[in-house]
């Protein structure tokens, strides 16, 4: 079913107003300019694949618009909460020049509303299916001034630059667009490293870019010359997926045997409430252990729940070697009657001949994070050109990429 076949009783205007109200309430919309854009642009026109008006305007959900032969999403309309967060981070003004990498049309229309007819919006995508749709939808909804470009963003020119803002709406492993920023410009990039993604707002500081406000998010990965392929091991016929960015080659057969063999348990004594955020744990592990990876079960696979019990449904922290792994699990924790909510104790399940060693290492990282960094907002991010010498942080790590070096630095921060 598409938008065209929906019941006429479903009102896009009411759904749009409700979405804006929700985004304001959760703090994703903070300015009148962003609110006005979301209140005006008809999202349902850019997401005909949505099964209902309610689905098109769900504040927390994406709408997948294209899948590959395996069923994996290759294009989507991002969740409104995340689009609003990125637009607010960009601090767009009337007349601004904006580049969007990763198209679809809806986000470009929101940008066009904010910058007005005196501004410039360029939206680029590598997929002709996406750019054809974006051009058509933008014209039909009254935004023909948006410039839609078909091409690989890895090789983008500076014809229309410099830009006051660059918004990247695909998962990017690298960031070769800093030279296109105008003085005082802001670039918002969902940057991938070690299998995790943070949407980071970068501002220029000399020859480097300083990262602000890292936000947990997920995006369809970049295609073309800028694509980056992590190691992926599909275990137990696809019931469980392990990923590792770099490191020794994963031996899927050995990992398969490890998964179905005996597991070891290690309980840490670290307790969290079920709704406590602990996303800085991923960053701490990524910065301190080059075997950091992620694990998750396939929800569509029969019996997958019997194989692993990760603390997170998606992208659960793990340490991974070629033939062994250890991951974060949980059990109900005892608590006194005065403490409200469900409490969980972190534990570690390990598999394979090096599993016990990995579990002990993971437990040590957890203990340091829990003792000193759990209440801290997280590390500092800076992005440097690939050809400059960068001092390694005392506490942290440098992630080497093709065009840049991402420094994740905990050194200048006071533990909590």
TrEMBL record:
Superkingdom as given in the UniProt entry: Bacteria
Record organism: Nonomuraea angiospora
Gene3D superfamilies attached to this UniProt entry: Vaccinia Virus protein VP39
Enzyme class, spelled out: transferase
Gene Ontology molecular functions: protein-L-isoaspartate (D-aspartate) O-methyltransferase activity
GO BP: methylation
Sequence similarity: Belongs to the methyltransferase superfamily. L-isoaspartyl/D-aspartyl protein methyltransferase family.
Magnesium listed as a keyword: no
Name of the protein: Protein-L-isoaspartate O-methyltransferase
EC number: 2.1.1.77
Alphabetical list of Pfam families matching this protein: PCMT (PF01135)
Predominant location category: cytoplasm
Signal peptide location: none
Xref: PANTHER family: PROTEIN-L-ISOASPARTATE O-METHYLTRANSFERASE, PROTEIN-L-ISOASPARTATE(D-ASPARTATE) O-METHYLTRANSFERASE
InterPro entries on file: Methyltran_FxLD, PCMT, SAM-dependent_MTases_sf
Subcellular location, record wording: Cytoplasm
Assigned keywords, A-Z: Cytoplasm, Methyltransferase, S-adenosyl-L-methionine, Transferase
């Amino acid at each position: 079913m598409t938008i065209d076949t929906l019941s006429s009783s479903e009102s896009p205007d009411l759904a749009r107003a409700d979405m804006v109200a929700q985004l304001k309430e959760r703090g994703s919309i903070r300015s009148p300019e962003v609110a006005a854009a979301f209140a005006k642009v008809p999202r349902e026109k850019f997401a005909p694949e949505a099964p209902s008006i309610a689905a098109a305007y769900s504040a927390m959900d994406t709408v997948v618009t294209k899948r590959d032969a395996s069923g994996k999403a290759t294009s989507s309309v991002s969740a409104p909460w995340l689009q609003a967060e990125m637009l607010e981070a960009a601090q767009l003004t009337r007349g601004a020049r904006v580049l969007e990498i990763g198209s679809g049309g809806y986000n470009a229309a929101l940008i066009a509303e904010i910058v007005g007819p005196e501004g410039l919006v360029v939206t680029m995508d590598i997929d002709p299916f996406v750019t054809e749709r974006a051009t058509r939808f933008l014209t039909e909804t009254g935004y023909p001034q948006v410039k839609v470009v078909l091409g690989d963003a890895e090789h983008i020119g500076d014809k229309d630059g410099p830009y006051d803002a660059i918004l990247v709406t695909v998962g990017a492993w690298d960031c070769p667009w800093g030279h296109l920023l105008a003085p005082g410009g802001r670039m918002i990039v969902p940057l991938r490293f070690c299998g995790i993604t943070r949407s980071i707002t970068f501002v220029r500081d000399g020859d480097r870019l300083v990262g602000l406000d890292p936000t947990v998010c997920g995006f369809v990965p970049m295609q073309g010359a800028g694509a980056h392929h992590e190691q992926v091991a599909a275990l137990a016929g696809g019931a469980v997926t392990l990923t590792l960015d770099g490191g020794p080659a994963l031996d899927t057969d050995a990992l398969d045997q490890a998964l179905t063999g005996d597991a070891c348990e290690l309980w840490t004594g670290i307790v969290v409430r079920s709704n406590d955020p602990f996303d800085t744990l991923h960053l701490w592990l990524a910065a301190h252990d080059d075997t950091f990876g992620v694990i998750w079960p396939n929800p569509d696979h029969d019996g997958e729940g019997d194989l692993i019990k990760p603390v997170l449904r998606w992208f659960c922290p793990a340490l991974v070697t070629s033939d062994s792994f250890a991951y974060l699990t949980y059990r109900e924790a005892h608590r006194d009657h005065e403490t409200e909510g469900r409490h969980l104790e972190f534990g570690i399940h390990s598999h394979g001949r090096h599993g016990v060693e990995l579990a002990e290492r993971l437990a040590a990282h957890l203990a340091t994070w829990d003792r000193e960094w759990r209440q801290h907002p997280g590390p500092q991010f800076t992005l440097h050109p690939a050809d400059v010498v960068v001092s390694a942080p005392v506490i942290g790590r440098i992630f080497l990429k093709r065009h840049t070096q991402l420094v994740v630095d905990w050194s200048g921060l006071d533990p909590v």
